[in-house]
């Protein structure tokens, strides 16, 4: 059928369209298409005209493109859609135009545009990653619109989210440190006026209060009329570099002052000011110990009130004597985040609070011989805990503080020995580099070298002076610049007449007459101290072994090579606390030193060893099979078991060894170490003196402990803990004398959890002090309720853990609970175990004495299962011994148990103590114990643990029988 002229003209117009064109009727049949559309579908026009087109489109019938066309028809509005067509390997933009009769669709090939967009997005991602690696963020300020665009890295540098920051110039200025804000604003305004690039350093204050230093660079963009339209720039976080440069420069200046024998107070003040400059808001205080080591003296505190520093001068050091007194006494860092509430400041807080000082962290400063020289403390005007970088900054200041103090001590001793010769530590001389002769020098030069003045003048100085690094055999004096240009600093080795070698630090310059004027200082001792400090930072001070953190690092390097197996062995000495308790800590340290040497010899170079904790060593080995590792563990264990003899002791020790392997037990150094330690504890539980590999059962136990521990932390808050009360009866007449309060836990998620499962976990997590305080309060509250109901003549026993006994504050807790519920002290009995005595015996003695002074009773629980030392019974004010049920269970038939029980009862009565027996299960046991003289009985035969209501019924019965 021939086309009319108008149709032909219309067809020609469609054919001239360079993109694919297609027309559909209301039913989706093709009514018209151009040649480009035919090419797209790969079909002739005659094959498509009149046919439904949805099956021709990539994706088929009912796909998103069809739905878009149907939506355009239904809503009679144009739609636009972009899609990737795999069949053609191209991107197309579909422009759908509806009419009453059908659709007109235009396909635009946008593949090239999409490629450019994707390349641009990739470049943006690459730029963002590069900025993050370099800690550089970029920004763009639209000046007329006052809108500032920041890169993602810049938001990270500022520590804020985009939604938290108004994108304006004023909002940016609000984040600049108040001391820098005016300077920054003036610099930017000057750049806007001059249209010149700019660069400056600024400090910003992040939301967490930390201060960061940025290096900012920028430039101004102008429009065709020369007006500033944009300012673009970049900010680099140079905080750490700035701090490192500040520290290096400041310490160099301080060391120069120390070398120049500036007064100690001036050097310490420079140190304090340097630390304060690097840590805004910190107020630094350096205290010195007097010659006796018992009192602190003012060293430097440039930013603290003078009245406060004067009040500290002369105070005695000791436990709980503020942060500094305690740190010097304990020889360890003491962090007090809130002076107002911390027990260490109980007697001193008014002194600090009146000056607005609310937090204090103090670190002891150690000398080269391990003695405490003083303390380095920082104060704050608000309560706060330290961040890791703040503690690291303090540690960086300790070596130079020690150098300043020890240098002053040495100088003072020299001045006291020879006051009339002030410059005895330094060498002054005039040198002629051309002749290599000493022209003139003071008496210090002959004293240091041992040569006479005549010998020194007649010889070339190169005979006894060499650069510290003289690989090129360079004359140190010939390295100076032209006359008067600069001071030259260098270090030489000085070969003395007696064959020894000293290090001399020189400062020299060339005069117009080309002679060298030089000052030298003997830094041999200082270098030794610095080397000792460096050694002490990486090695255990007792054994000399490498620090376990260094061992962890080397293990991590091994674990990076997965093909090389690695193993960790933790060696725990069995009952080593008895050595310290019986022969003293100095002897204990000597034993550890000897064991370290033995273990190194036994390793024979096949592994690395370090001291991990007080009585534990850790060994790492690589490329050994599990069988070989177990054999090595047995060799190490046998090495420990050999007798150890010193000047005045001979000991036989055993060790438990725990083993973990990569990658079976983990591929992380800390994880392997933790699991080897768990295996070591398992070896101890299995009887000690054995090696044990980490096992799936231990894995399950650790996971179980983690699960229980997570729930146990919230048990008090959720009200899941309760007390049950087991009756205690008089032996002779079976009369009720009281109850033992026993802790029970019913978890909402886990149900009833037995005490033998959760008590060890509570002890391992350090939760017993908190739980113990709850038990004490609940028991006293129950006693008060029973008293209010008329019950009398009974007592309640409460168990106190070793953790509670060792920590300060137990006496105050007991006294507070008695006072809070108006409970007579005689109605409360505190039960402790023998193992509680073994650590800090003097502290336990003091605590028990203070508890006894309150008027309460003290019982020794589970007697016979621990150390059972009669010496301890004599030292502590115990009222009652409780025989462990392990001895009671065999009565009356077991002759050994019977003999032990009779002996315990006899010894206790001789010491005027009451004796109680636990775990009485039947009448025969009860009869035997009464016949043997046992005063009290407790066990299921006489009554199981009862809830409070049932326990009160027992009290009702007892009152009725009186």
Task: Write the SSE topology.
Elements: H1 5-16, E1 20-25, E2 30-33, H2 35-41, H3 45-48, H4 64-75, E3 79-85, E4 90-98, E5 102-109, H5 111-134, E6 136-142, E7 147-150, H6 152-158, H7 169-175, H8 181-194, E8 198-205, E9 211-222, E10 228-237, H9 239-259, H10 264-278, E11 283-289, E12 296-300, H11 306-312, H12 322-330, E13 334-336, H13 349-353, E14 359-366, E15 372-380, H14 388-417, E16 426-432, E17 437-441, H15 444-449, H16 453-458, E18 465-467, E19 488-495, E20 501-510, E21 516-522, H17 524-536, E22 546-547, H18 548-559, E23 566-573, H19 577-583, H20 585-603, E24 607-613, E25 616-622, H21 626-641, E26 644-645, E27 650-651, E28 655-661, H22 669-685, E29 691-693, H23 696-712, E30 721-730, E31 736-747, E32 751-753, H24 755-764, H25 768-788, E33 795-799, H26 802-806, H27 810-821, E34 828-833, H28 841-853, E35 857-863, H29 870-875, E36 880-883, H30 885-888, H31 895-910, E37 914-917, H32 923-931, E38 936-937, H33 948-961
Parallel strand pairs: 22-24, 28-29, 31-33, 33-34, 34-35, 35-36, 36-37, 37-38
Antiparallel strand pairs: 1-2, 1-5, 3-4, 4-5, 6-7, 6-10, 8-9, 9-10, 11-12, 11-15, 13-14, 14-15, 16-17, 16-21, 18-19, 19-20, 20-21, 23-25, 23-28, 24-25, 26-27, 30-31, 30-38, 31-32
The total of helices stands at 33
Mean pLDDT: 84
Shape summary: extended
Strand count, sense and barrel status of the largest sheet are: 8 strands, mixed, barrel
Question: Which structural class fits the helix and strand makeup?
Answer: alpha+beta
Computed CA radius of gyration, to the nearest angstrom = 42 Å
Task: Provide the β-strand percentage band.
Answer: 15-25%
Order of strands in the sheet with the most strands?
A: 30-31-33-34-35-36-37-38
Helix percentage range: 40-55%
Low-confidence stretches: 418-424
Oligomeric grouping of the chains = single chain
Instruction: Calculate the terminal CA-CA distance, rounded to whole Å.
Output: 128 Å
Tell how many strands the DSSP assignment holds: 38
